[in-house]
Structures are given as C-alpha cells and as structure tokens.
Design goal:
Elements (H helix, E strand, L loop, with lengths): L2 H14 L16 H4 L4 H8 L3 H24 L4 E8 L9 E9 L5 E8 L8 H7 L3 H7 L3 H12 L4 E3 L2 H15 L7 E3 H8 L8 H8 L8 H22 L1
Parallel strand pairs: 1-4, 4-5
Antiparallel strand pairs: 1-2, 2-3
Helix pairs in contact: 4-9, 9-11, 10-11
Amino acid sequence: MPQMSYILYKTCLAAHRGLSRRRMPVGPAGRCFYCCFGINMAYFRRYTTPHPYGQTLRAGAAAGRASAARDGLRALDGPFVVADLETTGLSVATCEILEFAAVRVSACGQIEREFTQVVRTDGRVPPFISRLTGITQAEVERDGVPVRQAFGDFLDFIEGGPLFFHNASFDRRFLQAAADRTGLPFEAQTHCTLMLARQAWPELPSHKLNVLARHLGASEPTHRALADVRTTVAVALAARARLAAQG
C-alpha cells in the first residue's frame, strides 16, 4: 500500500474509533472528511488483513522445510558427501561454475577424501569475483580444465551419495545447468545444511556459513570451495549432534 494511503487509512480509522475527532476535519453530516472523499474502509481492511490462504501457504512452507531437514538428518546417519561451488556470479543464465570442491565423510564424521578443481571458464573471471574468492584469471588459465571434465570428475567423486551443500538450492541450479550443457546426468539426492542449521540453532540471528563458523568455533569460510566445504562439514556434524540430542 502506498505510504500516503496508509497514513490516510490510519487517520480515518482513528476518526471512526472516536480517538481524534477534535482534530479531524469533518465532512457533511458529521462524517469523517476522508470518507466523504471515497476512502473505503472495507478496502483497507481487506488489503491490510492477512489472508488465511497466505497463512496456509506459510505454514505449508514451514512444514516442507522441517521435512527436508528431517530427510537431511537421516542422510547424515551414514557416509555422505559435502560439496561447494564457486561461480562467476549469481545467475545461471549468464554465469559459470568456476570451481568444484567436495569431501567424502564417513558415518563417524571423519573426512576420508577430498576433491577440488578449478574450471577453465568460457568468459573471463570478473574482477570482483577474483577479489572475493582469490581465483584469478591466471589461475584459471594455468590450472583450469573444461567444465565437462571438471563436472565428470566431480560426479565420479560423489558417486551418487547423499550430497550436502550450504544453501543447496543455489548450487543445485548451477549443477543442473552444467548437466544440461554437458549432457552428463546429475541425479544425486541433495540436502541443505542451511535448513539443518535453522532447525538446530533457531536462536541465531543469521545462519550464514561465517556466522555458524564463529558460533561453533570452526574454521572460517574463505570463498574458496574446499575451505568452505570443510566449514560446512563442521556445521553438518554439529547440527547432527544437536538435533539428535533434541530427539
């Protein structure tokens, strides 16, 4: 609702409740001045009162998040993989995967193997991405491999196991785009440590990876994929322990 309309509504509502009639301009027959000019109280009530359908949608979304967190918690009972991507930006349509990283974790929480690979992107690495991640154009040209090779090696490493990301929806979009581009199948079941963290530590003001790292005393993420994966492993294991203790 526009700010002025909202102010008029609140003023009009006060008049109707008899809270400010001495200060209110009065129209014909003692009616509220604003009502005389067609401000419809029913309209304002309709569009400022939460609709039960919206409340139902929010409740359904919350239930879906809780269900996804339970699925993720069950997936942590056995061996699992934690992964991360660095990209040249946020849009799947215009940006590329810049780096893959993943670690395989045993059921008892030990890191067994690690994988990391820089991608030789089609476009140049944007300067702000180099500042954020430390991945330079020179590194891409020196160490990068084509995305099909990097993606194939990544798929071989994860072996279709339960796959965890922090904010999994972002990484999943880029992986699906890579699958579409390369023709390689991406069928791994993905889970989100962000959802687990929200269930485990609802009292925290934020569940970003750096906030969780400080809260848990884990290594700080650096926006290099492998370093961020190691932090995410710590989050996953701590969330598993906390949620298991909560029953």
